[in-house]
């Protein structure tokens, strides 16, 4: 590897995160990678997390060392969700079913008796 060339080697998680605070401690050369924030710090530095989500990519929030949320930029959110129609538009876009010829028998439906044990 040449000096200044990015490394593909990644240390184990115990070397990436401070186990005392579970805070983000990634080296400066890893810019653009997802950062992890402890929930308490995320609450205190929310504006910074939003800025970094916009500039550097998704920001992961952890609680007791477990990933619980991700902050992403609005552009990334729109890219992920795409342009999906709302439910009303989806239903209205269905084909016209009146053209189908559906035949049902004219006789009454069968009678079903339910046992008291099974009904409760």
Number of helices: 6
Q: What percentage of amino acids are in beta strands?
A: 5-15%
The description of the largest β-sheet is:
3 strands, mixed
- What is the CA–CA distance across the termini? 71 Å
**pLDDT average, as an integer?**
76
Structure in words:
There is one protein chain. The protein starts with 12 loop residues before the first helix and ends with a helix. The protein has helices at 13-16, 39-44, 46-56, 74-81, 87-92, 116-119; strands at 35-38, 59-63, 66-71. It has 120 residues and is of the alpha+beta class. Strands 1-2-3 form a three-stranded mixed β-sheet.
Topology (elements, then pairings):
Blueprint lengths: L12 H4 L18 E4 H6 L1 H11 L2 E5 L2 E6 L2 H8 L5 H6 L23 H4 L1
Parallel strand pairs: 1-2
Antiparallel strand pairs: 2-3
């Amino acid at each position: 590897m040449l000096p200044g060339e990015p490394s593909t080697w990644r240390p184990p998680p115990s070397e990436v995160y401070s186990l005392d605070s579970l805070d983000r401690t990634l080296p400066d050369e890893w810019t653009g990678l997802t950062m992890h924030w402890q929930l308490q710090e995320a609450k205190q530095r929310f504006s910074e997390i939003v800025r970094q989500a916009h500039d550097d990519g998704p920001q992961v929030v952890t609680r007791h060392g477990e990933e619980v949320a991700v902050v992403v930029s609005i552009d990334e959110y729109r890219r992920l969700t795409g342009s999906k129609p709302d439910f009303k538009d989806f239903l209205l876009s269905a084909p016209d079913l009146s053209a189908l010829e559906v035949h049902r028998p004219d006789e009454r439906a069968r009678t079903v008796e339910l046992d008291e044990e099974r009904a409760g």
